[in-house]
């Protein structure tokens, strides 16, 4: 259980919807190479597709048990936790959902990754806040960051299936329960998409796409959705609060409940959760509700452990290693997992022991025992299958016969049958895909991996079609035939979730001020449906407009995940565009508000502009004061010029570009700049408050609004030095590029101040490198900074101190001078004439 304590490890902990995985992917892509281990094949595939869009398919690898895509130039790896290649030297390593180290079945895998998986430059462990004491005990020197949830998660009470709001996910804990709930939704609400961990990525993505596109308004899923799969879910309803964990039926822990409930709400949109019953074992207790809403869960007091690098000298040595007790106080020996049970069962066979007489063959046996039981057959049937696989691996050329593989794949290549039959075939196909993706189990693994993948794709498409046919009711135009021609007489109602109903039939949805016709309406029917809802929608939109015109401060928020916008209760109501100055952006109402009359639109605009101005004054007071100074007629021209330059650059500007104006500032002007928070540095002018995360976010947003694009990548919070070219490593983000590094401007100024305090006139001196070293500045960067500050390196003959640290001599900053006009120009002649005749 040795751990590398030399390389820094960071933990990012918090509840769901805190952007932990998004942060890890950003850090992965910011390094020259890297790897993240995920708890689910589906999640690994989802992030793989995302990184491929950023880096290109030829540089990104996917490694799971059943799927391996490893280009020869691969530098970024997305894996399941079990499949992480720990022998690779990579700059970044991340471990997602690390609190699964407390899971009895797979926990030892995540604990091993926490202890042994390390990146050359950065390691990031993601998980629940409950993991904090374990990480402190197991990873000395770890830096733990906590991230709050982006949105609020609140309890909405119990609701029957027929009363569930649109965009709900109903969570069940067995395939039978999932199918039963989906069938009920088909009858009551028109249909549902189905997501289970056992589905292939292709089937799962097709089902989720149907939900995301609005073809169905409900999703029925197992607890697999709790592990970071991103879907636009507003409400999570629990069909039950009990699950079979492989050993017994038990109630979910509060942390498990929160992990699943946290899928409700996306980024800054709030979410809700609840149950389907008000009383009994399927209902939440008040204590559970409070803990979930406030994200307060018991801290973990142990993790499961098993030797991740066991002794392969013999079968008995291997079993002994796998059953060894941990030495750490906070670790507990893992319960016997399926692979160990299979290994011990095979070790009882005489023929197995006869063939396993070398460490290489022990490894082969252990690999065969690790073949996952995708079909959930149980230990005895699966041991027979694993034994047959090992039998082939331990005889002849050590390959599984291609005839056996081909026969089994051909038998599974059959798209006929119901949902359960197709799901069973996919599970069996996963076993053969796993075998094909072992590099030395088949004579031509690439060929057979392709065959297995093709069969799984065909079965996945058939399963998606079967699920859709079984659980989605493609409604006819019966509603329109009932409506007839008298549209004005129709009773149109708008539900609490924005659903627009005509005689209890959903005809569309009103999100904020935008009405969307029901997705299953034919093109020719949409005009009729719009006309039916027009009068009622007008009244409702006017009511909402009044509410927006008098909105409370807490109902409004800013959204900088894209072009800057203002949100009202999570809905975009306005955007920000180029205004008179960076501190005074122009507000543009969202086009959905065109439905309001002009008077109400003007009141809405006034309310939003007043809120925006107040937010900027509160968060960026220095920038507001500088904006006032640049427009102050009583201010001196140099002060107005400096203030305008600072406002235009967002409060941070290089001195070299405005040196003449800065040198012309009188004492009163300098005092006024200091009073509003501006530091006049040797290299830069800046407001130090703008370097803090909150003001920096607003500053980036205003710069983006002025430029007409989305905010750029932000530097990491608390960073002092960045690699040149890293996200945020520019002066516009508060970092001065110097050589291969970029130093935060306030720290560069601190080094400059220390250098000037250390020098004695123009005598050679050696600055104390301790300050630069503590900040993270390299000697090369320090030399460039000293040169930029007006120092030159002293020649050897001028150095009077002992050899070693370089000595510097003050030479003064070189200021750009304006050349005088030539004496023989027309204006000089005119001046001469005036002096002659004056």
How would you sum up this structure, described in words?
The protein is α/β, with parallel strands linked by helices. It has 6 domains: 9-146, P-loop containing nucleotide triphosphate hydrolases (Rossmann fold, 3-Layer(aba) Sandwich), CATH 3.40.50; 153-197 and 207-293, Rossmann fold (3-Layer(aba) Sandwich); 333-466, no CATH class; 489-548, no CATH class; 553-617, no CATH class; 621-810, no CATH class. 41% of the residues lie in helices and 16% in strands. The chain has 28 helices and 34 strands. The strands form 9 sheets. The protein has an 8-stranded mixed sheet, with helices on both faces. Strand 28 (679-680) and strand 29 (684-686) form a beta hairpin. The protein starts with 8 loop residues before the first strand and ends with a helix.
Query: So what's the overall shape?
Result: globular
Number of domains: 6
Residue fraction in strands: 15-25%
Helicity range of the residues?
40-55%
SS-based structural class?
Answer: alpha/beta
Terminal Cα span: 96 Å
Q: How many beta strands in the DSSP annotation?
A: 34
Count, helices: 28
- Side by side, the strands of the main sheet go 4-3-5-2-6-7-1-8
Major beta sheet summary: 8 strands, mixed
Q: Please tell me how large the radius of gyration is.
A: 33 Å
Runs in which pLDDT lies below 50 for 5 or more consecutive residues are: 1-5, 475-489, 798-802, 816-838
Global mean pLDDT: 86
